[in-house]
Design brief:
mainly alpha; 3 helices
Length: 84
């Protein structure tokens, strides 16, 4: 299920990227934006997306750890301690 959710999100992001690129190209053709501005906008968008991805991954890790703790599941550390 998580894998499907991830693929859906990636597909949506790719579709959004393509649409943004199309709109930027239209603005370039109309002379309302030059190529450097378009490139800068896309790079900025990419950086913001990467930062958001990092933030979301950290939030997901924290949420998963909380669920594991609430359920009382043994962690890898717990199992290693029992083996010793």
């Amino acid at each position: 299920m998580l894998k499907e959710l991830l693929y859906t999100g990636m597909g949506g992001a790719l579709l959004l990227k393509e649409r943004v690129e199309e709109e930027l190209k239209k603005l370039e053709e109309k002379g309302k934006l030059n190529a450097d501005e378009s490139k800068s906008f896309l790079e900025n968008l990419k950086t913001r997306g990467e930062n958001e991805e990092t933030r979301l991954k950290e939030e997901l890790k924290t949420a998963i750890k909380e669920v594991i703790e609430e359920l009382g599941l043994a962690t890898k550390k717990d199992i290693e301690a029992l083996k010793s």
